[in-house]
Design brief:
The chain is an alpha+beta fold and about 500 residues long. A hairpin with a 3-residue loop joins strand 14 and strand 15 (about 305). The chain has helices spanning about 10-20, 30-40, 55-70, 115-120, 150-155, 165-170, 170-185, 190-200, 210-220, 225-235, 235-240, 240-245, 260-275, 280-285, 290-295, 310-325, 330-340, 345-350, 355-365, 370-380, 385-410, 420-425, 435-450, 455-470, 475-480, and strands spanning about 25-30, 45-50, 75, 80-85, 90-95, 100, 110-115, 130-135, 140-145, 155, 185-190, 250-255, 255, 295-300, 305. The termini are far apart. The strands form 5 sheets. The chain has a 7-stranded mixed beta sheet. The chain has a two-stranded antiparallel ribbon with strand order 6-7. The protein has a two-stranded parallel sheet with strand order 10-11. Helix 6 packs across helix 8, helix 7 (about 170-185) packs antiparallel against helix 10 and helix 13 (about 260-275) runs antiparallel to helix 14. It has 25 helices and 15 strands. It binds cytidine-5'-triphosphate. Cytidine-5'-triphosphate binds next to strand 2 and helix 7.
Length: about 500
């Protein structure tokens, strides 16, 4: 197969010419070729060189410098025989072809120079064993020693060698198989899948960071439920995400059953993915009902209830993120907020949609109101078409109201029109309970619409409440103007 037409980037011409001068065989390999054949964009170019890869990459960087006036900075790792540089938004890596041999009982391979085929052999799945020549005479020709092209056409992830050995070498490959299947919507070959099931227990030896990176890629795939169902079917889920396994199952009592929260969660995640939700909104979808097993009760006559699962769930987020070594930053706080608020738009949509309820929701969600609405809409998974239609309609009303109120009230980034400092200064009081009471009542009044979001009305309200609380009007101002007390009469002396 000739792929020269698809190797259009000028970099490939530079590599070809440099390899010609040095008389070294060089191939673009692995993920780049797989994605080239699938016509998917790929930001990483991996080149395998049968010979001195570092020397060749130096020559290519110099050439880029001559042509563009900007020589890329080459990073060299002599102990691995690899080097890499960034050019034109691409991460380009050069590796000397190598073979790996494992001694039984050790996961650290002995690495020595090898042929192209030996280099492709040591890789994880057949779809990653394709290579395309970048040399002058054979430019664009595909090398496919392990049936990778067939598997791409059959849309199958298959280990081209003993999968048990491949997974023993690196158990992450089990997750990679499922992640690739989910990203590409491919099947997993039955023998490869059976080996994942057999080796599932080894997943516990992997670092949290490596698992998280695969999980993030899986979550970002077009239909992530597929990947999670594969993780579950292969027996990998309990070890990496026990909270999700706990969502599985349906319990029935007195003729009343609740829905399977695992299935429901995955459906919500798919809806968010379909709506182009980003990584963090997808994490929020995955975790929105995570506390349902902990909060589940059976109460007659209602049946199954999950009281406060949104609050308990939000509190579970930091522990789960810590386990995956996801930083406790603004993204985590966003996920917590989404989990905590996910029911609010539905509750609102079930009722008569009042201005003040919408105002409160916009106040609490702030700039994340759009994402919260996406999550809440995704959460409607009922089989009852009439119910779904009713909710959808009400959401349209809620969204219209949100827009109206935003235009009118600027409530999204609401700052109370009278601050705590104003209150303390005016009444001449230190930070105390009364400051909080006045602030909260003003905030509630603005959100309920009983006063406008402006300083004059808020100030008048502050004076009124101050009086009710027995505070001395203008005491702070008077004190500021009064002469200082003589030292002898200071109370502390
Ligand atoms: N590889 C492997 N075993 C691993 C990781 C990687 O055999 N545990 C091989 C694969 O053949 C892969 C190549 O190393 O093609 C490069 O790895 P990487 O860049 O991680 O994967 P890509 O296939 O490029 O895919 P992605 O970028 O989506 O991870």
């Amino acid at each position: 197969m000739d792929l020269s037409e698809r190797l259009r980037h000028p970099l490939f011409g530079l590599i070809r010419d440099a390899a010609e001068r040095k008389k070294i065989p060089v191939y673009v390999v692995g993920g780049y070729v797989r994605d080239l054949l699938l016509r998917r964009p790929s930001p990483d170019i991996d080149c395998t060189v049968v010979g001195d890869g570092i020397g060749l990459s130096r020559e290519i960087c110099r050439e880029i410098g001559r042509e563009t006036g900007e020589e890329p900075r080459l990073q060299v790792f002599p102990e691995f025989g690899t080097s890499r540089f960034r050019h034109d938004g691409l991460e380009v890596e050069f590796v000397g072809a190598r073979k790996e041999t494992y001694t039984p009982g050790s996961r650290k391979p002995q690495v020595e120079p090898g042929s192209l085929e030996e280099d492709l052999m040591r890789r994880d799945f057949s779809i990653n064993t394709l290579a395309v020549s970048l040399n002058q005479k054979t430019f664009g020709q595909l090398t496919d020693p392990f049936g990778g092209l067939d598997d791409l056409e059959r849309q199958t992830i298959r280990s081209h060698r003993d999968p048990d050995q491949s997974f023993a070498e690196d158990p992450l490959r089990m997750l990679r198989a499922i992640r690739f299947a989910s990203q590409l919507y491919f099947d997993i070959d039955p023998d490869t899948f059976a080996a994942i099931e057999r080796n599932a227990a080894c997943i516990g030896t992997l670092s949290a960071e490596r698992i998280r990176d695969e999980l993030d890629k899986l979550i970002l795939s077009p239909k992530p439920s597929y990947g999670f169902k594969l993780l579950d079917a292969a027996g990998l889920l309990p070890a990496i995400f026990p909270e999700l396994t706990a969502l599985k199952g349906v319990e029935k009592r007195n003729g009343k059953a609740h829905k399977d929260n695992f299935e429901h969660t995955l459906e919500v995640l798919d809806h968010v993915a379909y709506a182009q939700g980003d990584l963090w909104l997808r994490w929020a979808a995955l975790l929105h009902d995570i506390a349902k097993p902990r909060t589940k009760r059976f109460e007659e006559p209602k049946g199954w209830t999950f009281h406060s699962h949104e609050f308990v769930g939000a509190k579970m987020v930091p522990g789960i993120f810590r386990r995956f070594k996801i930083p406790a930053d603004e993204h985590m706080r966003f996920v917590m907020k989404m989990v905590e608020l996910h029911l609010r738009p539905i509750i609102l949509a079930e009722d008569i949609v009042t201005d003040s309820a919408v105002r409160r929701l916009v106040f609490e969600a702030g700039n994340d109101i759009g994402e919260l609405m996406t999550l809440a809409k995704a959460d409607i998974t009922s089989k009852n078409r009439e119910k779904v239609a009713r909710y959808r309609n009400n959401f349209v009303i809620v969204e219209r109201k949100i827009k109206e109120i935003e235009e009118k009230d600027r409530i999204r980034n609401f700052q109370p029109p009278v601050s705590g400092a104003d209150i303390m200064e005016y009444f001449g009081i230190p930070p105390c309970r009364e400051v909080g009471i006045i602030k909260d009542r003003i905030k509630d009044a603005v959100l309920d619409g009983s006063i406008g979001n402006d300083r004059e009305q808020a100030w008048a309200m502050m004076l009124r409440i101050g009086k009710e609380l027995g505070l001395k009007e203008g005491a702070g101002l008077q004190a500021a103007q009064a002469p200082p007390l003589p030292p002898a009469s200071r109370p502390s002396e």
